[in-house]
Amino acid sequence: QVQVVESGGGLVQPGGSLKLSCAASGSIFSIYAMGWYRQAPGKQRELVAVLTSDGSTNYADSVKGRFTISRDNAKNTVYLQMNSLKPEDTAVYLCNADLRSTSYRRIYWGQGTQVTVSS
Question: 64: exposed, middle or buried (C-beta count within 10 Å: 0-12, 13-18, 19+)?
């Protein structure tokens, strides 16, 4: 059984910062990539940032220079440092993990954490 759990969301003022965490746990053999997506009300889910096992990163244009994705391999955890937050960053942030458990490879999703940027 594999679980992906996000934490760190909350309410922040424009220009502020938040750091999200996403931990994968359970019977994990290897992790190929972990990433963050977000979904605002009435909008489609969009990629925010992804980090692959070889260290490659990919960011949405809207967050480049403001957000940084990083990882702690020993903890199977990925982080999203979000700086200079804007109201348009308000969304539910979801983490996913492309990993191989002892059985097979698939993508697992967390439940999401709410980020609200408002004064």
Answer: exposed
Radius of gyration, alpha carbons of the chain:
14
Helix, strand, coil percentages, rounded to 5, for the chain: 5, 60, 35
**Helix (H, G, I), strand (E, B), or coil: what is residue 15?**
coil
Question: Could you read off the pLDDT of 83-116 as tens digits, one per residue?
Answer: 999 999 999 999 999 999 988 899 999 999 999 9
Q: To which residue do tokens 């910062």 refer?
A: 17
What 3-state DSSP class applies to 41? coil
Question: Of the candidates 111, 107, 92, which has an alpha carbon nearest to the alpha carbon of residue 33?
Answer: 107
Q: Token pair for residue 88?
A: 């348009």
- With beta carbons less than 8 A apart as the criterion, state whether 64 and 117 touch: no
Number of helices (H), then strands (E), belonging to the chain: the values are 0, 11
